[in-house]
Amino acid sequence: PWPGGFSPNILPEIAPSRAYLKVLDGIDYVGATLLEGEHALEIGSSPGGAPYALLEKGLSVEGIDPGLMSEICLTHPKFIHHHVSIQDFKVFELKNHVQWLFVDMNLPPEGTLREIEKVVEKIMPSLKGAFITLKMTKFDLVKRVPMYLNFVDKMGLKVVMATQLPSHKQEFLIYAEARRA
Fold it and tell me: Which residues of 106-129 are buried (b: 16+ CB within 10 A; e: fewer)?
């Protein structure tokens, strides 16, 4: 949607990481409307670029990551950090108040999708949409993209868009919305 394909978003010096841009570029690219006061769950939140961008948009954010978080997030009253890996996170403790799921984990695509499957099932009643970033560390993984999209579909999510954005480098973004009966 931008001239030359490059986002007009700028990474502020205070932002903890380039994930700040990845989140904003993804939201802008797909045209999703995230409303102030909504709740986001960010899996792979460290060091805090994505949560910081979401907090700036007025959302409350829960981050799941065993890594350390930036103070700018930790001191924000609308941020909660679960300092554990997704494998050790107690999904049953999640409340049905998550409207937006953001995923950016340092796992191969299949591992990422397997780990979020139980989260999606738990938050489905309140979920509006999911931004899933898959790490395409080897060129051969590109051949598997149709399989990844099918996996997301089987979770009960409708794939709206799948793309690679300039801010995502060797990563692939899947934007999916919750199916409603």
Answer: ebbbeebbebbbebbebbbebbbb
